[in-house]
Amino acid sequence: MSRKKTLKSKGQTSPSTTLPAGRGKEQEGKSRKINSSGQALINGVILPNRPSLSNSSEFYDLAFKVMLVGDSGVGKTCLLVRFKDGAFLAGSFISTVGIDFRNKVLNVDDVKVKLQIWDTAGQERFRSVTHAYYRDAHALLLLYDVTNKTSFDNIQAWLTEIHEYATQDVVIMLLGNKADATQERAVKKEAGEKLAKEYGVPFMETSAKTGLNVELAFMAIAKELKHRSMKSPNHPKFKLHDYVNSEMKGTGCCRS
Ligand SMILES: Nc1nc2c(ncn2[C@@H]2O[C@H](COP(=O)(O)OP(=O)(O)OP(=O)(O)O)[C@@H](O)[C@H]2O)c(=O)[nH]1
Ligand SMILES: [Mg+2]
């Protein structure tokens, strides 16, 4: 496999992936408009141009799109900032408007895997914007907040939405965030485990505040996507559930 330096021209596909030409169902005809600057608008929200996976100057071998989804306030933006910058956004909560993305290249068993991570707005009014991006996603990190029972109860609805808009083989992982907030905890870890088992998805508790399992969540996704795209009879099968269960740390630790 040759290591590529990415090209800057628009519309090029990555070595590992092709971008679907179409968009999510919701976007078709419904409330999609183009403004005078040529930008796409859904329900009045300006959509950022979806960057090509290869549109960066970083070296990588494989590239994938990962989406963060879940109710507003569960900690999607904080999780991404912790992963990308190793910092925690404490203080006042600034809700994401529309959608944003950050890139990070991980070294997975000597293969450079670039994750383009899309941070979506959890607020209901931006839902149609989020729908438009599901189809391009290779993996979804679905978050709830362990201090907010409603965000946990809404996971089922999120999964229904995912099954409607995302591709069939999208990798899904369930994360119970804010595991550091022991005093305010409203959802037991066992409840998260049970729900994840019901839906057959891997699960872990995370904390954007302490960094608990944050690196692991993204690394596990990167490993799974890498193994899927490099399938070869000589490589032993990667088992995402087993990897997560063996590497996961419980609350009280500060793995980052
Ligand atoms: N204690 C604790 N607080 C957290 C954690 N992650 C996020 N928060 C806090 O939760 C609030 C919401 O975090 P965000 O990351 O902005 O939430 P979001 O999911 O991006 O919300 P939307 O953009 O509206 O969808 C902020 O006040 C954060 O400081 C965590 O791991 N532990
Ligand atoms: Mg946000």
TrEMBL record:
<comment type="similarity">
    <text>Belongs to the small GTPase superfamily. Rab family.</text>
</comment>
<keyword id="KW-0636">Prenylation</keyword>
<keyword id="KW-0479">Metal-binding</keyword>
<keyword id="KW-0378">Hydrolase</keyword>
<keyword id="KW-0813">Transport</keyword>
<dbReference type="InterPro" id="IPR005225">
    <property type="entry name" value="Small_GTP-bd"/>
</dbReference>
<dbReference type="InterPro" id="IPR001806">
    <property type="entry name" value="Small_GTPase"/>
</dbReference>
<keyword id="KW-0547">Nucleotide-binding</keyword>
<dbReference type="Pfam" id="PF00071">
    <property type="entry name" value="Ras"/>
</dbReference>
<dbReference type="InterPro" id="IPR027417">
    <property type="entry name" value="P-loop_NTPase"/>
</dbReference>
<protein>
    <recommendedName>
        <fullName>small monomeric GTPase</fullName>
        <ecNumber>3.6.5.2</ecNumber>
    </recommendedName>
</protein>
<dbReference type="GO" id="GO:0016020">
    <property type="term" value="C:membrane"/>
</dbReference>
<dbReference type="GO" id="GO:0005525">
    <property type="term" value="F:GTP binding"/>
</dbReference>
<dbReference type="GO" id="GO:0015031">
    <property type="term" value="P:protein transport"/>
</dbReference>
<feature type="compositionally biased region" description="Polar residues">
    <location>
        <begin position="9"/>
        <end position="19"/>
    </location>
</feature>
<feature type="region of interest" description="Disordered">
    <location>
        <begin position="1"/>
        <end position="35"/>
    </location>
</feature>
<keyword id="KW-0449">Lipoprotein</keyword>
<keyword id="KW-0653">Protein transport</keyword>
<dbReference type="GO" id="GO:0046872">
    <property type="term" value="F:metal ion binding"/>
</dbReference>
<dbReference type="GO" id="GO:0003925">
    <property type="term" value="F:G protein activity"/>
</dbReference>
<keyword id="KW-0342">GTP-binding</keyword>
<dbReference type="InterPro" id="IPR050305">
    <property type="entry name" value="Small_GTPase_Rab"/>
</dbReference>
<keyword id="KW-0460">Magnesium</keyword>
